[in-house]
Design goal:
Shape: globular
Number of strands: 13
Order of helices and strands: HEEEEHEHEHHEHHEEHEEHEHHEHH
CATH class of the largest domain: Alpha Beta
Length: 331
């Protein structure tokens, strides 16, 4: 194999790896959390510093969560491009599509003043990022790893877009809704014990501080995998079949997230060798949940809490729970 072929093969493998990480809803925490210093200075996850003296007006978002949050803050015309495979909110479908795998010239042709990326793009496609920066385009790399970081992330997006008050309202509404959901099950003496699967083929779960586990616990569930350790500074943890089976009799409910490249089914989990000894499998308490509502740093984490709550405690998650959710969704 020639050097060129070797380089091409390596680049393809790297791209596939990044695609798998992205589609599985994995939050990248390899870099320090982004933050706001003073009134208007942002430090992103790559260590870039940016003083925001005016709102950006021509924004390309290269991550579905960025796009969703920008729309939720009230932007529309300011969003001039989005990443591939975005489906939410519906307005995103009408926006031009951009990819970090494309020629940077496509970006330069539409004159964005801000491109919002994720740390994996910074590390995997440095030449692409450098080319945009060399042409005067501001780059910000963001991806919160937990819910506390998510609150800061929303405020950063608010600062970038001139929607600081709206961002603070998002944080306030989210916290109030979570408190309301927690009240529905706080008094329960016995709570449902749950194994939450992240990637079935690798027998991976979520770290205890992940957004998915936050949603589970806010819904009143008990996470079985409290000893899960992160893989490569992500919110995903290798757990392994042996450890899962060691908790088999304790697992009341088996949850599994599903995304573009991670599509478990109830049948697949049921037929996994050895899994019939798991209480939840024997009792047919296996549920698949969309990764977009449990692993993305958006207001739809509230949908995740609600859906998990309906699975675990259908009698408690009644009209009151629905009203909590609808209050946040109301204009």
């Amino acid at each position: 194999m020639t050097n060129k072929q070797t380089h091409t093969a390596f680049s393809l493998a790297l791209a596939v790896t990044f695609a798998l990480i992205s589609s599985a809803g994995i939050n990248d925490r390899a870099a320090a959390a982004s933050r706001i210093e003073g009134d208007n200075m942002i430090v992103d996850q790559a260590g870039r510093t940016l003083v925001v003296d005016h709102p950006f007006e021509r924004i390309i978002s290269l991550y579905g969560a960025h796009t969703e949050n920008l729309f939720n803050l009230g932007l529309d015309d300011e969003i001039i491009g989005v990443s591939r495979h975005e489906t939410y909110p519906p307005q995103a479908l009408s926006k031009p599509v951009f990819s970090y795998r494309e020629d940077p010239e496509k970006f330069l042709a539409v004159h964005p003043d801000l491109v919002i990326i994720r740390p994996m793009i910074d590390r995997g496609y440095p030449q692409f990022v450098s080319m945009l920066e060399q042409n005067g385009i501001t780059i910000i790399s963001l991806q919160p790893g937990n819910v506390e970081d998510m609150y800061v992330y929303w405020q950063i997006l608010g600062l970038l877009s001139g929607k600081r008050q709206q961002a603070l309202e998002m944080v306030s509404q989210f916290k109030a809704a979570v408190s309301g959901f927690k009240l529905l099950t706080d008094a329960k003496i016995t709570k449902k014990r749950v194994y939450f699967e992240a990637i079935h083929s690798k027998m991976k779960t979520f770290t205890p501080d992940s957004m998915a586990v936050f949603a589970l616990e806010a819904a009143g569930g008990l996470n079985i995998a409290t000893d899960a350790k992160p893989v490569r500074n992500t919110n995903i943890a290798y757990y392994g079949k042996e450890r899962i089976l060691s908790h088999g009799r304790e697992i009341d409910v088996y949850l599994a997230q599903s995304g573009a490249m991670n599509k478990p089914t109830v049948k697949l989990i049921t037929n996994e060798p050895g899994f019939k000894t798991i209480k939840a499998v024997a009792d047919q308490k296996i549920y698949i949940i969309d990764e977009q509502i449990v692993s993305r740093p958006t207001m739809r984490l509230l949908d995740g809490i609600y859906h998990i709550g309906k699975i675990l405690y259908p009698k408690d998650y009644n009209e009151t729970a629905l009203s909590i959710l609808n209050r946040v969704k109301s204009p």
